[in-house]
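Key result, reporting period 2: structure in, sequence out.
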């Protein structure tokens, strides 16, 4: 179900699996105000739909900005998502090794700065990412064995 689309991002939601798939935007300096707005849209969508699983598809992302701009966007997204009930974020790695190198550096900055409360895992295969997002995380419904006699 298409929730939102503009020239930068596309938000496609699978309500049966509770997975929001986001085409990560290209990062060009002249687009930064629109990119910041798009990040706000992603965060608000996760919050408003109470989404637990997010798939960020960065396979085709083009980056022409200095590294600090990408880091700023990543930190804004992680900080915003940390204030939602998101449980898992899967990121599809870029096909471009230089873009992926920056993404890994941004991810490290996110972990040291934000320490997000959700799980974050990178994938090269979309099917594996979706399977991980769909896997049951909360086993609290499983009762403990009765050890009393």
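The corresponding designed sequence is given below.
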């Amino acid at each position: 179900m298409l929730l939102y689309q503009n020239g930068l991002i596309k938000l496609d939601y699978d309500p049966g699996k509770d997975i929001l798939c986001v085409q990560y935007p290209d990062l060009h300096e002249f687009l930064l105000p629109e990119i910041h707005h798009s990040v706000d849209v992603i965060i608000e969508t996760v919050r408003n739909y109470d989404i637990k699983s997010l798939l960020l598809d960065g396979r085709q992302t083009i980056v022409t900005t200095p590294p600090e701009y990408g880091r700023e966007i990543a930190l804004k997204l992680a900080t915003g998502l940390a204030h939602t009930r998101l449980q898992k974020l899967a990121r599809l790695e870029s096909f471009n090794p230089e873009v992926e190198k920056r993404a890994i550096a941004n991810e490290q900055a996110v972990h040291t700065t934000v320490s997000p409360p959700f799980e974050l895992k990178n994938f090269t295969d979309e099917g594996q990412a979706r399977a991980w997002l769909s896997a049951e995380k909360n086993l609290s419904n499983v009762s403990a064995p009765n050890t009393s006699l």
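Residues 2-134 form a domain with the Transcription Regulator spoIIAA fold (CATH 3.30.750.24). The chain has one domain: 2-134. This case is discussed further under Risks and Mitigation.
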